[in-house]
Amino acid sequence: METNRLIIVAVGGQGNLLASKVLAEAALLSDTPMRMSEIHGKAQRGGIVESSIVFGDAASPLITDGEADVLLGFEPSETLRALPRCSKNTKIITNIAPLPPFTVAIGLGVYPDIEEMKKIIRQETASLMAFDAMKLAKEAGSPLTMNIVLLGALLKAKGVAFTKGKMEEAIKRVTKPAFTEMNLKAFNLGFAVEA
User: Fold this and answer.
1) I want to staple 109 with a disulfide (CB 3.0 to 4.6 A). Which of 71, 77, 89, 103 is the partner?
2) Per-10-residue mean pLDDT, the chain, length 195
3) What would the pLDDT profile of 25-53 be if each residue is shown by its tens digit?
4) Domains of the chain (ranges plus CATH)?
5) Could you tell me which of 67, 3, 13, 26 has the C-alpha nearest to residue 187?
6) Burial bucket for residue 145 (CB in 10 Å: 0-12, 13-18, 19+)
7) What global pTM score does this model have?
C-alpha cells in the first residue's frame, strides 16, 4: 500500500485532536493501516498542536522535514511555520481566518500578511487550497466545526484516500450525537469547496 504522510497543524482549542480521531476512525473503517503521533505543546494556552499521521505501510508515525505529502493547516501562520516539513510535491489545505497570538494582540508582534503567506506557500509546494473555513463553520452552525470543515476540504483535495461515506461514518462514530448533524453539514460545506 502506498504511504501517505499527513501533518495537521493548529492552535490549541481548534479541534486538531478530534480531527485526527475522525481520520483514524476512517482508516479503521477502510482497512487502511495508519500510525499517528501528536505534539500538544502549550495547547491549553493557545500554543501549537500538531498531529502526524502516516497512512499505509510505515514503521513510524514521525514525519521529518520535507517528507509531508499533505499539510492541513487550521491557522494560516501555523501553516506557514510548518512549511519546512513540506516539499515541492506537498498538497496544502489551509484555513485563512487568522487567530493571532497573544503577542500580536498586545503589540509585541506583527501578524504576517495572508496574501504574502499564500504566495510563499504556492512557490514552495505542489498545490494550495486556501479558504475561510471559519466562515463555513459558522454557516454550519458553530465555529467549533471548523476542524470538520477542513476534513471535508482535505477529502475533496484528495489529501486522503477514503470515500466520502467512510468519512461521514467516522464523523458519526467519533463526534457526540448532539453535534453529529452540525458536523456532517460542516463536512459537506468543506467538501463543496473548489479544489
Assistant:
1) 103
2) 92 89 97 87 66 91 94 95 96 94 80 94 96 98 97 97 97 97 98 90
3) 999 999 999 999 887 665 455 677 889 99
4) 4-191 (3.40.920.10)
5) 26
6) buried
7) 0.93
